[in-house]
Protein 1
Amino acid sequence: MALYELTIPISEKEVRALHVGDTVRLSGVMVTGRDVAHKYMVENLIRAAAIPESERPLYEELRRLLNGGVIYHCGPVVRQLPPPLSPPERGGEVRASPERGMEVGASPERGGEGRGRWEFVAAGPTTSIREEVYEPEVIAHFGLRGVIGKGGMGPETLRACREHGAVYFHAVGGAASLIADTVKEVVTVYKKDEFGVPEAFWVIRVEGFPLVVTMDSHGRSVHDEVEAASKAALARLVGLEL
Amino acid sequence: MGDLVETFVELIRRASTELPADVEAALRAAREREDPDSAAASTLETILQNVALARASSTPVCQDTGVPVFYVYHPQGLSTRQLRAQIEAAVAEATRRAYLRPNAVDSLTGRNSGNNVGIGFPTCHFNNGLGKERNGLGKERNGLGKERNGLRKERMRVDLLLKGGGSENVGTQYKLPYEPLKAGRDLEGVRRVVLDAVYQAQGQGCAPGVLGITIGGDRGTGYVHAKEQFFRPLDNVNPLPELAALEERLLRECNELGIGPMGCGGKTTLLGVKIGVLHRLPACYFVSIAYMCWACRRARLEVLEDKTTFS
């Protein structure tokens, strides 16, 4: 079991080097997405005959972020920050603040609802298995290299990981405040008004996010192994063949 | 009784950001039991660090602050309508202060209400006095006997549980007899289905969790009273000897399943098992299992004549 420091975007070679049990400290820009976001991506962006004009900007942005990128199954608790001072009051500078969530440069192409105006207060993972029906297509279509969540995913996702070169990273469920501390900047958010805070696409820059690989790109899954072992234990405890 | 909104906000803040001492102690003991180099030990260490950080910074222990479930024991004559209005105002304010995540979603439109207030949300149970009938355990049988004597002077008591969604998804209800496990209508049958429920849950409920179980009741009351078991301190022993024995046995055997913290393998799968009973219909024998994650968030508020205390 090895420890890796990885930065997004992640290459296929880097992903294929990972094995179940490896710990990773992950840095870079990732996107949160859970139940509503996955259904949206698959039904409106991936399977749609044509992507509606209104969704094109978000689609292009997701393609850019997720290619070699990571999706985090998370519905955060967020706090809105007061708006930063506008440049003229500061002598024409846009100040970059190292503090979590402060505005770091106004970039015209970075759309979304409120650049740099948010702070992540609590941000542990949600249970991933609910996205099992969508994740393989998201991995295939966008070139995703990693999925972060808790509780693992199923056989179809495991297969997609092997075929396309991706892994499942397990974050500690409920390490909400600790993980929020690794979020150094909330870059922007998409679909917050339509999906609500927990379900929106939050684009975040993280540093040193601690993770364990529990499903790798070689067909191994800790979750399958624990399930099999616990089934055997259950059979013994009830004296039945199951 | 006056304006209790700010008092309720403080109750919510405590429940959300300060893990109860007995739960934290159980997590520490669990960490000691695991092999030092294991993923299980590392997970528990991370959880404990998070608990300390959340308490120090007054941030939610978990981002899924769940549905707030209030159990309000109030004196006669107090308007429950007014109390509910104050609770709703407190919940909205606590959301604004980021003690709670906005979690109330309209089931028809999918729209998040934004302030944790919605149809039947938050959940409030109102009781005139301390209601021995409420929890189905009777005043002799709820394991809180000694405390109850001190409560006569209370004007009001509010117990708050924050029940997260991940764990709620792995709660389940069996009707006995349950053929796949050869579980009959007796405590042995109860043991079998509880083991099965924990096996099915794997790590999805954020193990190591706590089980609240009701034997009996109907499909509704079974689940409601199962959640009330989460207010029993983890080291509280069931006053009914046969249930105390079953609680201890189930805790031990569920840990033998080896599911471990987050379901990634380990010696601790549960922190506690708490069982209550309700009378039932002859035709029905339900075993209702509420699954609480390791972040067993509960807090109590007592309003006395001259002061307010939290615990």
Protein 2
Amino acid sequence: MTGRRLSVLLLTEGTYPYAGGGVSTWCDILCRELNNVDFHVVAVTGNPTTTLKFHLPSNVRSVRQIPLWGSEEPSEFIEPGKPFGEVYLARQATTSDAIRDRFVPVFQRFLDEVLAQRPADPSTIHGLYLYFREFEYRSTFQSMEAWETFLSTVQRSLADDGVHEDERPSLYDVTTAMRWLYNYLMPLSAPVPRTDIVHSTLAGVSNLPAVISKLEYGTPIVVTDHGVFIRERYIALSREKFTPFERKFLVSISSYATSLLYSMADQVSPVCNYNRRWETRFGAEPARIRTIYNGIDPAVFVPKEKPERTRNRPTVVAAARVFPLKDIETMIRSCAIVREQIPDVHYIVYGPTDVDPPYTQRCMALLDELQLRGNFDFPGFHSKPHEIYHEGDISILSSISEGFPYTVLESMACARPVVATDVGGVREALEGFGIIAKPRDPMGLAQGVVELLQNDELRQRMGHLGREQVLLRFRTSQAIQHYLESYSALAHISEPAFGLN
Amino acid sequence: MDSTETSSSGSAIELEQAALDVVGTIGKPVDSWAVAATLESLGYRDVDAVDRYRRKDLFELAGDIFGLISSGRVSFVAGTAAAAPRRRHGKAARFFRAYLKGAVTAMPMLGQIAAILLLRYSLWAWVDFTETQATVVALGTILSFLVTGGFIQSIGREGIRYLGATNYALSERACWNLVVEGTVVVVVVGGLLFVADILVPVYDLRLMEVSLMYYLLLSELWLYSSVANVLDRPMAIFAITLAGVVPVMVVMEATKLGIYFAHWCGMSFALMLMMAYTMPLFRSVAKSTAPELRTTQLPRRPVRAYLIYPYFIYGFFYFLNLFIDRIVSWSTPGAEPPPYLIWFRTSYELGMDWALLSLVLTIAFLEYIIYEFSYYQIPAQKSVDCARRDDYNAFFRRFHRRYLVGVAVIGLVNIAATYFGVVYFRHFSQVKEVREFFSDPRTFFVFYAAAIGYWFLAVGLYNNLFIFTLSRPEFVLKSIIPSTAVNLGVGLIASRWFHYEYGVLGLVAGSATFAFLSTKYARSVFRSLDYYYYSAF
């Protein structure tokens, strides 16, 4: 089959095109560079929003937003062109009988699979999707039948598991869990467009439409789970104050979705080999895993002199959103240690500070506590990332979880060596061309920073080698070529029909 | 270059230390995956698992650590989710605060009553009104409530809903949209009535113009006041409506332009103050919207209409229910037919206003009850095992019964207090107005009946508060629409069969129906409160 444009359903959550960050950048590059491919984006967001963070290229044919929260009438966003009369009629058709006969059996099966952590049967999710094609989502979830099914299934699963008295859920826990389910399963209420390929950017509940696409149309699935969703989910849930039941429920539904997506995927393409460890354990067949490293454009990220304003001061830059997974607090503590040897050291963190305001406040309080206001700055988001790294002598990354971070590659391309934590695929990019420290270890980070700032020869050598490494292995064109080959092979469409810029 | 090399040993002590690291970070892990993820986030790597712990990889290490923790050999801090102890005020303090808050919402009305008693003028009333003037003003006033009632309720619903979701900008947009839409409807209805009166003269055109002017200004005042209510500013409404009386006095005392013009000046002044107050205030509140929410759009018009129509209908029927007995009574033909289709009866209105005082005092108590309902809701949910929801439902059924009795008793006490409080003024019968007030036994009859009607109404409002809180407006409509029909039917029969003041029996019967039906629906909600609480999203 040749001569026609290939189409890809791109599934995102909390990223492209409504938010910035590494995954969004990756999506933007993918869509922009593969300009002979048509993309249909289904973007799961937190709240409804209309502000695009990216200028969409013309080959992004459609964007459907699915806001999980903050909308009283989700169909407004999920199917914006649909006359409300149709929604109303679907609601009228969603009677108690319809819910009891058509929804409850499949919902029951779904809950059994999730709560008992049994292997997921793809037809269950498909059954839910088919039901929501006919009946209304919100009124189904608000029905007495749905609530009674959930409550009784939870109670049965507790009896089966012999849960300890202290860990039995309260009524509040169960209420909360069912409301979460209403929010998290919302992507199943949206129609899935037919495409040649479905590319999932996160192996979580929000990307289950990939499974639907495969079951409905036989569409091949590619999964690029940048930070390994399930691992990040575990980390995030551990930090939150949930009851044992709430936490277990969220873990169960997340691992249900992850396993289903990995096992159904035709190709799992982690952005670094490190991520394979989790992916194979959650159901990805090793033979179907093909690592595709992120790439950047070395013509954009080029080495330049430091600007006047930072030239006379040892400067460490970072490009990071201020939120817990970036562990900015450890970065701040490392700054305090570095200052003992280099009193005028200056850390500059470029990135939005409004992602997690309480966390940002904690960082600010730590700056005050350590009296670092003169050494550490948060200037906010910078719209031209290629200009960030020149301001510094080196750059730093303190994350406790990463996929294959662009910031490391970008800094390397700008010949600014990186001190980074040993997370995700950082080692695969940086080993031999930067300094790697243990996560949550301010001393390790500080030692790396001091060493690079004080040893000019080492800094310059690593900067030079880093850029060479990018040119050799981490160019955008290489990454894009790999995705193109993958799409082509999976869709059985020969490459000449589409191509690179 | 690598600063992460580790020493190798792999003792049980080190394993226990790693386990302590994990439980110190996350408490008791859900499973071994949680341990693996935590270990990674703590800086443990495969190389550490091999070199230091003699395990194949990090996942094997995680499995062993999870086993260690599960076996109880490593203690953990249980219940990381335990909520911070809530500062609990005493019941008396809660009662005082909430009742006071409820009472404050009645301040604008009480302020107008005080103004008329002390100054002889209020924003739209005057002690020396003739019956013609009172008819004109009463019609304008009633019409303003009927036309804006749905909008007032919708503004409250949409405005507060979006505020609750911290989307202040959307709340602002929703409120102003409704104010504009309400204004359009007010103008259209006014225009249609005016044209209708030209085509089929029911009122003298001059009186119709005056009445419509009152209607227009009051309608706008209600619309903007309801926005101030969304912003929870009852004292501002009180102050502004009171300030509006000043121009009334000035015009009346300093000019000969008459009471109509004076009232229009006062209402326009109050309206401008209300606009000048609410608009910048809402603007500044909206500015604190989180950046990611700022671009959120309101749903399409049909969707909005669908979402708010029950509240709109309720608002209309609420005011219709409140005023329909007056319309019925004042339109009763008698020995002396009224000069116009609807004719103001002073003694009837005085009885109604007197009884209304008792309702206001009782409604303040409802504020306290709904506060208590919310106060106990989450702790009760959290304290009940999911298998014992009947206990939870039973707790709130008792709550509903207890406070139902409370509302009934407080309502009766308030009726008695209002009766004796007003009757006390008989001691001042040397004052002409006081003498006139007590001169007509119909005032007493209307008071007795209306007080009972309002007592039932308070019970209905009590039930509906819960139903509204649980986002089930359909139940409220099922009680208010039939009760309005009963109000109309009984009022018509009684007023035409006996005498005009018997129209008030419509209010009694309608409100009794409202109380009965709403209690029935509230009880059914409380029987399955676990479900209704869950589905109130």
